Hints:
Layout: H1 17-37
Amino acid sequence: MGFNPWNGVEAHKPLGSLMRMRKNAYKHSQQFRSARNGTPVQEPQTLNLP
Length: 50
């Protein structure tokens, strides 16, 4: 599973230009790890909590 702070609720989404740059870094890091591990990254589809 991948971690991406932009997948949270709207009120908690990152703000600012630095955070927009981090979004790109997260994406490339996730792609690199996925390729090295040989497994696809799966993102959560809902925010349902038990």
